[in-house]
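Re: the request from the purification team.
They wanted to know what the chain is likely to look like in 3D before they choose a buffer screen. I agreed to run a prediction and write the result into the notebook, where they can find it.
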Amino acid sequence: MTETASVRADVARFAESFAALERAVHQFIVGQEEVVRGVLTALFAGGHVLLEGVPGIGKTMLVKTLGQVLHLEKGRIQFTPDLMPADVLGTMVLDESTQGGRAVRFQPGPIHTNLLLADEINRATPKTQSALLEAMQELQVTVGGTTRALPQPFMVLATQNPIEQEGTYPLPEAQLDRFLFKLLVGYPKEGEYAAILDRTTGAGTVQLEPVCSGAEVQALRKLVREVPVPENARQTAVRLVMGTQPGSDYATQRVNRYVSLGSSPRGAQALVLAGKVAALRDQRFAVSADDVKAAAKVALRHRVLLNFTALSEGVKVDDLLAELL
């Protein structure tokens, strides 16, 4: 990306759009700055996000608010143990006309939308969870032998409760790897409760206006891909990912002891894409090593599988990533 007047205008437009979306979301969402920024970063990077946190802290409301400030179609799936793949993807149905004729047509499922909220995704069976794999990776679904492209832009925002395990099915590694980021949604700070209560229990309502269209999101995603990645930033991403792999030259002693499975190359892709968005957000024309490092925890924490020794000793993935950094 050579710095020209046209490129400077594009970069400024990206930074302005990103900041406008942040302001719009925070008209209703109080605090959670890192989570909001992470979701918007994934949106422009073309990835999906897994939001993890206890109930009642605004995960679902964040997704709904994002849908309101983006001029996009929204869909929601409440995952339950009896949910079937056809309930997600859609199915072929038989129509009877008033003249007595019959025809088979495709009835789209809720996944045929731009912004999909997969609520409590770990409550569905592995069979239903796997229905999302093709959609998240290939941006298409196959039903009845026919492949159909999903609307663009397409993004999955999934939520899960880390505490409740009864009646849930942990996401397999292949599913987790499809998420660009895993964001931990924590409790609000003491000073934020007053604003939360005012906005959720008061008589007034917050009117949110769309600030970005689907076509604009697509154009900005294309701009993200054009940001150059210098060798030092690329090398930082590669070494961070290799550092999570037991037995590699960059793995620490604790990684070798506690990690069963490290990040795949998708982790490096996530680091680079996050770095590109960060560079544009700060109106810079290339990715820095610091951009890559800043995304390490959110991009890699769900791609590292701890062994039994780590679980028994209470070792956390984030602690191992902090060592690598």
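For the purification team: Residues 1-80+112-133+149-226 form a domain with the Rossmann fold fold (CATH 3.40.50.300).
Please add any questions underneath this entry.
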